[in-house]
Design goal:
7 helices; mainly alpha; 188 residues
Length: 188
């Protein structure tokens, strides 16, 4: 039954991923490709990522909602979203109850310190996976560097770097990104 499968898939993703939505992204991509790869293409996953980023709310919840919607309609969205939220909800309730008792524990501090590099690695994996799909959809060839899309995406990446390291008003970045997006639409 698709609803139970959606719930269970996103329950396991929510239970075994630390670090938020971007850390969940490689696991979401892997699970969706393994279970529903014939229905949801890699390009559709990239589109889900873009829409999940641009809609309000947590990234992982938006991804679960979109995948659930594609696979099972409104009730599929509900099942997938409930699955991805339930583990965090239960864990936060338990942590809130026990936090004062274990806050200064060396073991707890060590676990949190050890999780940081794993989260960075998961996020880097997600970024590289998306970059490879966007810049090199078929394969890495020199022909990619002759297409206008590559330079437009490089421009968007440059704007992102400016935003990350310089104090530029976000409205200016949004306007520049909109212009580049419109250019992509007309050129491609």
């Amino acid at each position: 039954m698709i609803y139970l499968e959606l719930f269970w898939t996103f329950l396991t993703i929510g239970a075994f991923t630390f670090g938020g939505g971007y850390a969940m992204l490689p696991l979401i991509q892997e699970q969706v490709a393994a279970r529903w790869g014939d229905t949801i293409s890699q390009q559709a996953m990239i589109d889900f990522i873009a829409v999940s980023e641009s809609t309000p709310g947590p990234f992982a919840i938006n991804m679960a909602t979109y995948v659930g919607s594609r696979m099972g309609g409104v009730f599929g969205s509900f099942c997938a979203t409930l699955g991805v939220v339930a583990p965090s909800f239960v864990i936060i309730l338990i942590v809130a109850k026990c936090y004062d008792k274990f806050r200064e524990s060396r073991i707890v501090k060590g676990c949190m310190t050890g999780l940081k590099p794993a989260v960075v690695g998961l996020i880097a994996n997600a970024v590289l996976g998306v970059l490879m799909t966007v810049f090199f959809p078929a394969d890495i060839t020199l022909a990619v560097f002759t297409q206008a899309e590559f330079y437009i995406f490089a421009g968007i990446f440059a704007i992102m770097l400016v935003l990350a390291f310089k104090k530029v008003h976000p409205i200016i970045i949004i306007c520049l990104s909109a212009v580049l997006g419109i250019a992509v639409g007309y050129l491609c």
